[in-house]
Amino acid sequence: xxxxxxxxxYTPHDYRFLSALAETSHEVxxxxxxxxxxxxxxxxxxxxxEEIDWWAVSRPFVWQDLPRSLxxxxxxxxxxxxxxxxxxxxxNPAGLIAAIGFHPLVTMxxxxxxLVGAGRGLGRCVAKYTLKRSDVLVCDCQAVRTRAEExxxxxxxxxxxxxxVDLDKFSPxxxxxxxxxxxxxxxxxxxxxxxxxxxxxxxxxxxxxxxxSESVPHLRLILLGNGSQAELIRERIEAAxxxxxxxxxxxxxxxxxxxxxxxxxxxxxxxxxxxxxVSLMEAMASGLPxxxxxxxxxxxxxIPGEHGWWFEDGKPESLVSGLKQALEHQAxxxxxxxxxxxxxxxxxxxxxNFQRLLEAYDLARAGSG
Length: 369
What we know:
This protein is an alpha/beta fold. The protein has helices spanning about 10-20, 65-80, 90-100, 110-115, 120-130, 140-150, 175-180, 200-215, 230-240, 255-265, 280-285, 295-300, 315-330, 335-345, 350-365; strands at about 1-5, 25-30, 50, 85-90, 105-110, 135-140, 160, 190, 220-225, 245-250, 265-270, 290-295, 310.
């Protein structure tokens, strides 16, 4: 089968899907809506994947370009003649394919496109339009499925599976070298690796860490990533006089991530919106208990007292209380870690979950036209 994989840009998630597709017997063509260079993903495309060039990729996508984008996209589809288009997020690449009327279309939600972007206005209208014209929707959690059904997607045309992780790569273990290099062998180490953007609440993580550190002087924070809130976050830590208790790891390549998970004692995420968070699945697979915001996507993975704890989304004071609660239960971290790993092994195995995408392709082709 000839598949056109159409995404907004080239991200670690795209690399994951394209790498898996490259190992199938399908011919896979890759099209991106815009190109931010190596800002998102530095690994090259898998050898078996052919990238398709077109005019739109040289500039950020704006809705004013819609007529021109549709014109050239029609020409491209006529030339490439794919047997199926896999496109996402919902409002951008998938929306363009839906507007052309191509079938079969497998639309892939990226979580926040439906949970946040389809809340109202143009984002909601485009999402409803796209879902109505999609043969199948692929999503990664029940929260996104429910939202898609509310927007009019037929339940029997929705395929749900967590995107999953490499359970061999992300596994429990020790990373004494990193803790030794930091001088943190006997400290309690927290890990946050979400993007420093308002959606992911890293500013709340930092605020909670600062407050908790007042009563727990041996608390330390590994803070990976970067983003638009970088200046705010760094200034807040410096103003609190805690720069020596925070390790700014920057953007870490995927192959180096397991060492950071293994160096930590507790994973933190204050994200305001998520499907099945890959970072959370990586942490659980690495044997880390998790303290996470009580959004629907996280509640599908973390059961309080079994794999970690929840705190009230959007409220730093609740995160502080949750962090203090976690610190009071340090003796239980090992059993929590074991159960987190078990849950990841049962539900987050990428090699198993990827087969659901191929089933979605079959469903789309069987029900199209």
